[in-house]
Write a structure and sequence with these properties.
The protein is an all-alpha fold and 362 residues long. 75% of the residues lie in helices and 0% in strands. It is globular, with a radius of gyration of 22 Å.
Length: 362
């Protein structure tokens, strides 16, 4: 009834793993009990004396503090500490949700709802990067619902597009396109940054499904919208535009079977990256993309060298999503005539040792 394996349920029953929020919600529906009754969150009564402030000014102070934590958590995540960011947000989220229930008619309700929405949005991004697609979808879904309740059409469209991106990564590509096209149509009154953000996701999904004309049209629309804007915030906030446009074009051309054209765009992405001060996460993304394209073009030595460097950076950033791209590259190489290349053996050993070290750390 939960649509998961007996092995996973067994781990939940033995206490070896806690159900993700996605499955917690399914448990609540299945047993018609609340998350508190099922033991997923601490009972509200024990928190009430802490959570409900006696005066509005105290509440405002609390919300100021939480907003500062959320802003800092975004920076912490980009600084390659996703677990710390998720831990801080998860610690504050039950307090915020309790405040939303108890102050639903107060003047601060809109602000509380926005903070809860931002918490779910950040958790969705962190879970997606950790390859926890079900959990990411859960958080994006809640963020989108909150945006709708606040009549924040711009954020509602952005989260709908992110739900589509999560479905794409889960292999449901046609459903992903449907979500993103709906987000694009709903976001016609949104700012240029958000419209461009949605089109970035949609363009790559078109390429991922071999719809080249739609990709070219949509990525050009995204470029035009993002070229002169810096207005984005929250989910649509981007450190800079040129890198992402070039990198998406590079990955898309590789997916479309054009590795040499991909390398041209990825070289442009690298040039734009050199002009910026960014975290290692961006370098990991680019190194892996260039490594994949070079391998597709037949330069296995240089390609694997770059992919290995990107893999180590992704490990440093604690980004399973980027690490998994290199794992897929290795699997592809092992199934090709290149499997006997010396560099393939080196890559295999690197991945084995790194994942073994990760298991020992855990």
């Amino acid at each position: 009834m939960l649509q998961t394996s007996e092995d996973v349920i067994g781990k939940w029953e033995r206490g070896e793993r806690k159900p993700s929020p996605f499955y917690q919600e399914k448990f609540c529906t299945l047993y018609n009990l609340s998350a508190e009754e099922l033991g997923f969150v601490d009972p509200t009564p024990n928190q009430a004396h802490i959570l409900v402030p006696p005066f509005d000014q105290t509440l405002n102070d609390q919300l100021d503090d939480v907003e500062s934590v959320i802003n800092l958590a975004w920076e912490v995540w980009f600084a390659s500490k996703p677990q710390q960011a998720a831990r801080e947000i998860t610690r504050h989220l039950p307090r915020l949700e309790h405040l939303l229930r108890t102050h639903s008619t107060s003047s601060q309700a809109l602000r509380i709802r926005e903070l809860v929405m931002r918490c779910h949005g950040l958790l969705g991004s962190i879970r997606l990067d950790a390859l926890e697609n079900d959990s990411a979808l859960f958080h994006y879904k809640h963020a989108q619902q909150l945006a709708n309740e606040s009549h924040n059409d711009e954020q509602a469209a952005a989260y709908l597009a992110l739900m589509g991106d999560t479905l794409r990564r889960h292999g449901e590509k046609l459903k992903a396109i449907s979500y993103m096209e709906q987000a694009r149509d709903q976001g016609t009154t949104a700012g240029k940054a958000t419209q461009g953000f949605i089109r970035q996701l949609l363009a790559y999904t078109y390429a991922d499904t071999n719809h080249e004309p739609e990709f070219e049209r949509t990525i050009q629309e995204a470029t035009d919208l993002l070229a002169f804007t810096s207005e984005a915030k929250g989910t649509a906030k981007k450190e800079f535009v040129p890198f992402e446009i070039y990198e998406i074009r590079g990955k898309a051309n590789r997916d479309l079977g054009k590795p040499l054209q991909a390398l041209t765009y990825l070289d442009l992405a690298e040039a734009s990256l050199k002009r910026m001060t960014v975290t290692p996460r961006w370098h990991a993304v680019l190194d892996i993309s260039r490594g994949q394209a070079l391998c597709d073009a037949g330069d296995f030595t240089t390609g694997i060298e770059l992919a290995s460097r990107g893999f180590l950076l992704a490990y440093q950033c604690r980004s399973p999503r980027q690490m998994n791209r290199v794992r897929k590259l290795l699997k592809k190489l092992e199934a090709s005539p290149a499997r006997n290349e010396p560099a393939v053996s080196v890559l295999r050993e690197l991945l084995y040792e790194t994942y073994l070290h990760s298991d020992l750390e855990e």
